[in-house]
Design a protein that fits this description.
The structure is a homotetramer.
Chain A lengths: L12 H10 L11 H13 L6 E5 L2 H10 L6 E6 L3 H4 L4 H6 L2 E5 L8 H10 L9 E8 L10 H13 L4 E5 L2 H8 L3 H4 L7 E5 L9 E5 L5 H10 L8 H11 L3 H22 L11 E2 L2 E3 H9 L5 E4 L4 E7 L6 H10 L1
Parallel strand pairs in A: 2-3, 2-4, 4-5, 5-6
Antiparallel strand pairs in A: 1-7, 6-7, 8-11, 9-11, 10-11
Helix pairs in contact in A: 1-11, 2-11, 6-7, 8-12, 12-14
Chain lengths: ~350, ~350, ~350, ~350
């Protein structure tokens, strides 16, 4: 009954096997390994983007910060949701790497609304040299609230950004989960919906630690490489990043792992709703139901592990996250204890 | 006959086994894993430093940049060798993280001389607010030239820095190799010789990707953690960093691996000298002999892989690095082809 | 009828006379001039703060950015009003100098409310290493909306900050106007109310270009000097900054100039209210009344100069600012044209 | 007998008169003043560069840091003389604004030699993503040693930079003195000799505090404006900067002031040489002769004021600088006291 985060689970067997295989013999370092070339081919094929470029790092914060820094200037604004990971959980890394200012855009259930974005876009960058300039839009899918944008919803937001001439980033720390939840293709969820650069998450979904920065505008690749090195994020034994990402994207492993996580998340949500619990919209593997502190205590006493966040009126929110290795038995044990 | 770098070799079996073992079950993320506590204990014991703190990252550049940034101000000078890795091979990462300026100090065979350091210390920071202030000394052992400082040599340099009131960093990307070369203990090579913070390399010496920042002044630990997170270097599945470092430091594995690398490096050096090649001082696993371009071509044609650097008078330097997995057969094949 | 800003007015005769006098003969550069010592004495006397330190720069943005950077770390949060000058009008200068993140705190009429600040303080810095840490409170007096905090109101806010262990900054670009509006002494408005560092504005109130950073914690003075130099804000012919500030603070000139500006601002506000215009609270020399676009056009046609800002329902806000040199005739001409 | 620096002198009467005149009435702020348009026209005419752009700041460090930051990336190298002002006297401001690394290039008497520059250009930027990239060349004229580059010497150096595809900056803190010393026109000394951006000094040569950044590539103007604002260097009462620069450039005032300073510097040099003192090459208003400490003491006792720098063999260097207001009487008094 471990639902604290998808990053408390380990790596999938296929990923570990790839690590072991990659270990054989000598290999060129710093990204010149043969597996990296295969990763690039896989990304281009899967995203139907024959000119896309991808570079690998080991953490999601690095992927986001580098992706953003590569597309903005230090006097720019990056528009993101009030509770975006880049705003709340990265200790200023995006600002450190880019120099830009995050402009927070509200919206229920973790999703920016077109109206709120239009307002933010119209009130930022209007005072000439005195204020920050419009720089970039950054969306997150799966959102921080566990909801999922459809490609159409993403396209509606990126259209507003594009009308102002600014590029769009997608923080896809749980990108595979978003694909599974919507049935969209990788292309539909990204460049076809106006996304210019993607943080392609692997770590939470069954890898040890690997994230891709996928550039649909390949002209930025060299700058991204320089920023990666300058940030200390270029692996010398890069083969171990490549091996993870190659295995992850091969034969749909990433989608199978995400499908498992989402199914377990949905089983949990349904079971809680069946038991009259209030579960806000939850489209993938993460939910934030709410109940009394006493009930939380009882669940913990029964062995459940998850985060508790304070909520109004003496109640508390639970943060429950299923992962690629969550079992039906775990879910059902939790529901039985409920 | 692969001598391009110790980072073209893979990971040692013991390290891989530790990764596999660490994968079992759920584990707390972001450094709160049980193995990390054991790593701290190991470091304190091995370094005879019961209050030392250690934090893990995945690259040597990250370790160096964070170690330095934690000890200087943006208006400070960091004194380092003209050819230090932080000066030549990290694409401004130390400056990016710290804001400080690197002041280059010369010295033959990769070693700063006390006279050169004394001169740099006396001519920097003497113009009040107009120039940079004295900030830190950063040494490298094994040096970039393949030589090794003895603890006494380190102490002579740190004494000059301490007399100016500034702390001292040791870039130990090949720290185990330096220990093996000198027979010094970890304590003798570090805090007993005036070192305040160590970049403790694992990657080049048989790990997949792990480096420790060891703080002998534990008061800096929280700042280091914040800088690590802000730089995107805090691993969510941190257990995989801990597992590597734990295995590396357990039962002297790190020293055994380094001993192998050094032995192979010395065998190579001796063999070349026996064959009348000019081999500058080389104390560990890395050497920089020099011969004609034509001879380089012949060696490459015979299957040798290594870097060639231009040198005066139409000659070229070879950069030959042995690693934990270099075999006598490889060395001898190279010598036979010579 | 020029009400666009107090910075469209020139310098007061006393300030110009001081510049001319300061020009005589040779003088030590970079802040070692004799007049600077007199400025320090004046500040200490006027603020009843015998250990305070003051350093001069030429712009308000520089004063704010340096004052803040000297008191926070790059992973900190600076709490300020949603519409603070540092948030909206300085093109990321505070972030550039400090690395910190601005956390916006709402409040009507430009004033942060204690409840809003308490909420922001309790929800920031609660996620360990993942989020920014609580760093500093920055207030503005006169506020951006033209209202004025009383010392008691400031003390109520700084008490909340102090309870969290963080220092407090006051952006006093119009500090003299705030003093005049409240009748408070400089000490009452600053350190007696919990302010640790003040941006003491001179430019808008009759100087050519000079602002002081007043440190009530003198331990920060050397860091401030280094940051000033590193930012390119240390004047070589510093005597011309000192001369302005000395004249400004001598014999109450600063308060006389502000009293004139405030009186003209209040005359304008009262006259507009007498004419049934809606004038939101305006305590000093700046007001933001609202009327129809057509009426704005008529006023401009009559020769009035000021900023127009869009407002809901087809109306527009006027930004009207009186300065030390605004005359009753100008105000009355505007009111007659209204 | 005040020869400490040209910045210990005051402002020329014409400059002060311009300040007084500029003070009349209201004027638009933040660079939109009418005088600024005239400054732009003057610069274009004087430099025979009809598309040049110029922006004003108050300090030389700001001008240099902004000029450089506008032309390089944070992973770039800026090549400059070992003793350049940007390297030794600006407390990391160029690095703070640009993120770039200064690569020091040696040369006797303050002048970079083509050979030394060619070597630095060929050994920097050759290691791919690992090292800094070639970014910019920054020259200084008058040099820090008091010598002056001819346009041909500048062109020889910029040609090497241009062959590597990088732009060229001229730190002209004493640009007028260099023009007078060589007889070159402003165009010959800058864009005709390969300079892309100039720091055009006014402060040392009779202004209160004003420097221009002259862009011969006007496409960079908007970025320069944003960087200036973000650095806190945009004056609200900008008219006072414009007024200084306009008066300075009108009717050759700048050249007359520099001619006086140079003439006094040369009179001093010649007089010292006549008295058998060792005076290294000195082409403008600044010289660095050397004599015994005892002789320095005697000169100081006689009332001479200047900087003393330690030199080998118990001797000391004098730093003697003449300014626009140095008189023949002062020079002769010094020589008599010698």
């Amino acid at each position: 009954m471990r639902f604290a985060s998808d990053n408390t689970s380990g790596a999938a067997p296929e990923i570990l096997a790839a690590i072991l295989k990659a270990n054989e013999g000598y290999e060129r370092s710093y990204g010149a390994d043969a597996a990296m070339a295969r990763v690039t081919d896989l990304v281009r094929e899967i995203f139907e983007a024959p000119h896309a470029e991808v570079r690998l790092v080991a953490t999601g914060t690095a992927a986001n910060a580098l992706a953003i820094a590569t597309h903005v200037q230090p006097w720019d604004a990056v528009f993101c949701h009030t509770h975006a990971h880049i705003a709340e959980d990265e200790c200023n890394a995006p600002e450190f790497y880019s120099g830009a200012k995050l402009v927070l855009v509200p919206g229920a259930h973790g999703k920016i609304t077109p109206d709120a974005l239009a307002l933010a876009l119209s009130t930022t960058g209007e005072s000439g040299v005195h204020g920050v300039q419009r720089g970039m839009l950054s969306l997150t899918n799966v959102t921080e609230a566990g909801t999922v944008y459809t490609p159409a919803e993403i396209a509606a937001l990126t259209a507003l950004a594009k009308a102002r001439g600014i590029p769009c980033h997608l923080d896809g720390a749980r990108f595979a989960n978003a694909l599974v939840a919507t049935g969209a293709t990788p292309a539909e969820m990204t460049w076809k919906a106006g996304i210019d650069v993607l943080s392609l998450g692997g770590t939470k979904n069954g890898c040890l630690g690997v994230e891709g920065v996928v550039l649909f505008n390949p002209a930025k690749a060299w700058e991204l490489e320089l920023r990666r090195k300058r940030g200390g994020h270029l692996f010398s034994k890069h083969r171990f990043l490549s091996a993870q990402m190659e295995a992850y994207l091969t034969d749909g492993l990433w989608l199978r792992l995400a499908a498992r996580a989402n199914a377990m998340g949905q089983r949990l949500a349904q079971g809680l709703r069946d038991r009259q619990a209030h579960v806000p919209p939850a489209d993938a593997n993460m939910l934030f139901p709410e109940w009394s502190a006493g009930h939380h205590d009882r669940l913990e006493a029964a062995g459940a592990v998850y985060y508790r966040w304070t909520a109004p009126e003496g109640r508390e929110k639970a943060r429950l996250v299923a992962s690629w290795c969550t079992t039906e038995a775990e879910v059902d044990a939790f529901l039985n204890a409920f």
